[in-house]
Design goal:
By secondary structure, the chain is α/β, with parallel strands linked by helices. It has one domain: Ribonuclease Z/Hydroxyacylglutathione hydrolase-like (Metallo-beta-lactamase, Chain A), CATH 3.60.15.10. Helices cover 24% and strands 26% of the residues. It has 7 helices and 13 strands. Strands 1-2-3-4-5-6-7 form a 7-stranded mixed sheet. Strands 8-9-10-11-12-13 form a 6-stranded mixed sheet. Strand 10 (138-142) and strand 11 form a beta hairpin. The longest helix is centred in the last third of the chain and has 14 residues, at 167-180.
Length: 242
C-alpha cells in the first residue's frame, strides 16, 4: 500500500484548529501513522514513530521544511506490528533517537526511565512513562500535541495481549495522561484503521469510553479482545529488538 502524506488539518475530525506557530504532517502507511511536527518560529522539528520503507519519503518531507533543526526521532514503544526505521532516520537527520529505558534496541541515544522533560526553544518536550500496551511505552507531549502511540488510539486503546502487555498498567497510564493533559491538546494516535484520524483531547474525553471506565470495566474490555496476532509480529520484533 502506498504511503499517503496529509496535513494534520485534513484528518482533524472535530474541526479543532492547530495553534500557530505549530504545524504537523502525517504519513499514513496502511494503518500506521508517522508524524513530523515543527514550530515555525523556533525552526525545531520532531519525528515520531517512523515506519521502515518510507525513509526516502520521510527525508523528502523533512526537506520541504527548510532551516529546521530536527531535535529528535522518537519511537513511542517497541512495535510488534511493523518494522521501525527510527534509528536509520535519526542517523540521517543527525538527531538523537529517544525511547523508554526498557526498549531492547541498541540504537537508542536517550532513554526515558521516568516522567520528565527536555527543554526546547518552543517549550518543554515532555515524556510520560505509560506502560500497558508494552512495558516500554512512553507518551511524548510537545507544544499542543500528545503522541498516543498504542497507548491511546482514536477512540480506543492499543491491545494488551502482546509481549509485555499489562492491562492494569495500561489503565493506570490512562489516568496519568488525564491528570497531565488539558482539553486544549491534540491527540495524535499511532494507528487508525479508518484512514487516519485525529482530534482534540476534549473530543476524546467526551466520546472515548475507556477514558471514563473504572478499572474493572477496562480490564473486562481488554480481556475480551479476540483479534489475531499482527501479521508481521515475529518479523517486527526480530528487527525492532536489534
Amino acid at each position: 500500500m502506498k504511503t499517503i502524506v496529509k496535513e494534520l488539518s485534513e484528518i482533524m475530525t472535530d474541526g479543532f484548529k492547530i495553534p500557530a506557530p505549530w504545524r504537523a504532517r502525517v504519513l499514513v502507511n496502511d494503518d500506521n501513522m508517522t508524524y513530523l511536527v515543527w514550530n515555525e518560529n523556533t525552526r525545531e522539528g520532531l519525528f515520531v514513530d517512523p515506519v521502515a520503507g518510507d525513509l526516502d519519503l520521510q527525508l523528502s518531507e523533512a526537506a520541504k521544511i527548510p532551516n529546521t533543526r530536527w531535535i529528535a526521532v522518537i519511537d513511542t514503544h517497541t512495535h510488534a506490528d511493523h518494522i521501525s526505521n527510527a534509528g536509520e532516520l535519526a542517523a540521517k537527520l543527525t538527531a538523537p533517537l529517544i525511547m523508554h529505558a526498557n526498549a531492547p534496541t541498541k540504537l537508542v541515544h536517550l532513554r526515558v526511565s521516568r516522567d520528565g522533560l527536555l527543554p526546547t526553544a518552543g517549550g518543554p518536550l515532555r515524556f510520560l512513562v505509560t506502560p500497558g500496551h508494552t512495558h516500554d511505552s512512553i507518551t511524548p507531549i510537545w507544544g499542543p500535541f500528545i503522541f498516543g502511540g498504542d497507548t491511546l488510539l482514536y477512540g480506543e486503546t492499543g491491545r494488551d495481549d502482546l509481549p509485555t502487555g499489562d492491562p492494569r498498567a495500561h489503565y493506570e497510564s490512562l489516568q496519568k495522561i488525564k491528570v497531565n493533559v488539558g482539553s486544549e491538546f491534540i491527540l495524535l494516535p499511532g494507528h487508525d484503521m479508518n484512514g487516519g484520524r485525529a482530534s482534540s483531547w476534549k473530543t476524546q474525553l467526551q466520546e472515548f469510553p475507556a477514558l471514563s471506565q473504572n478499572y474493572d470495566e477496562f480490564y473486562a474490555d481488554s480481556g475480551s479482545w479476540t483479534g489475531p496476532a499482527p501479521k508481521k509480529l515475529r518479523e517486527s520484533l526480530f528487527v525492532n529488538f536489534k
